[in-house]
Amino acid sequence: MSFSKNSILVQDFREPGFAPFKKTFLSDDAYAEALSAMLPMCVDAVPIRRTAREILLSRRSILPAKDWWWIGGRMCAGGETKEEAMVRIFKQDTGLELNAERFTLVAVLDHQWKDRQQFPQNRGSHTPAYTFIVELSADEEEVAAANLETKEYVSHVLRGFNYTQIVQTGMLPQVLAVYDHIFPQPKVAPALGKMKKVSSDARRTIYEFNAPDSGFSTQYFEVHQSVPLGNHFHTGKEEYFTIMSGGGWYYSVPCDPETGAPLTTLTRERVETMSAITVPAYTAHTFVLDPGSTMYCYSTAPYDDTNKDMLSCVLVDPKK
């Protein structure tokens, strides 16, 4: 199977007469000593949402990789194929017993960690890993999340991440490398077009140029009333606003990626002509601009009314 720029053979060879090893449980001390003397081969599973171009991660609570991570990281047993190990470990971690055919090997990663859970923790560990992907149904995702071990994961949460979210969260480089391999970034097509009026009411008029093949969209706002515009956050895309004329107030607060709840107190800032505002994903935001103001927005994703990227978060009550 090819899983890099070069064609690399990955194949199991089992000599006739080979007998699988009897499984042996190592004490913590013996396991820590073994980690210092040899390289345990591990298997990892990366659940994916192919259509949404997302990988599903949970936040690990123990070393190594004490961060957002995929499922697994456990050792193959002697006499197991990598596929057999993946089926066994995935069931152990999620409660789901899936056929081996559901898993696809996409990478062999060599993890060298500076820390480990076993003492002495600062000795680190070196663990190569077969890395598989698996696509789950919505029901299977719920079962997997509910069965995650609390000794290893912070909570029973499997959260989908796209490319932008992985970059913004500052995840381990292995996560981004695997994502890029599973979902190569599309080539950006040249885009040339003209903004069209897409919405108009008593509050504002919006003109838009949507470029799905190039992966972006732009909007131009004409403000008619000094009322809140926004009161939401995006889970994936970033937005870049420029006040073209007029001014007013900009309200924002970062939100928790898991719950959507505000993480800090609300910030209010004065904006004026040529003010530029960057709005990362999971940042709730609202503009209250003076009538006659105009504003330009660049979005790092095209508009798609089937994508539930925008979630409500009321910062300024429109009735007040």
If you had to describe this structure to a student in words, what would you say it looks like?
The strands form three sheets. Strands 1, 2, 3, 4, 5, 6 and 7 form a seven-stranded mixed sheet that branches. Strands 8-9-10-17-12-15 form a six-stranded antiparallel sheet, with no helix packed on it. Strands 14-13-16-11-18 form a five-stranded antiparallel sheet, with no helix packed on it. Residues 1-5 have low confidence and may be disordered. The termini are far apart. The longest helix is centred in the first third of the chain and has 13 residues, at 82-94. The protein contains five helices and 18 strands. The protein is elongated. It has helices at 28-37, 82-94, 138-146, 163-169, 173-182; strands spanning 42-49, 54-59, 68-69, 71-75, 104-113, 125-135, 159-161, 196-200, 204-211, 216-223, 229-234, 239-245, 247-254, 267-272, 276-279, 283-289, 294-299, 310-312. It is α+β, with helices and mostly antiparallel strands and 320 residues long. It has two domains: 28-182, Nucleoside Triphosphate Pyrophosphohydrolase, CATH 3.90.79; 196-312, Jelly Rolls, CATH 2.60.120.10.
Which terms summarize this structure?
320 residues, alpha+beta, Nucleoside Triphosphate Pyrophosphohydrolase, 2 domains, six-stranded antiparallel beta sheet, 18 strands, 35% strand, disordered N terminus
Summarize the structure.
By secondary structure, the protein is an alpha+beta fold.
Helix/strand layout:
Elements: H1 28-37, E1 42-49, E2 54-59, E3 68-69, E4 71-75, H2 82-94, E5 104-113, E6 125-135, H3 138-146, E7 159-161, H4 163-169, H5 173-182, E8 196-200, E9 204-211, E10 216-223, E11 229-234, E12 239-245, E13 247-254, E14 267-272, E15 276-279, E16 283-289, E17 294-299, E18 310-312
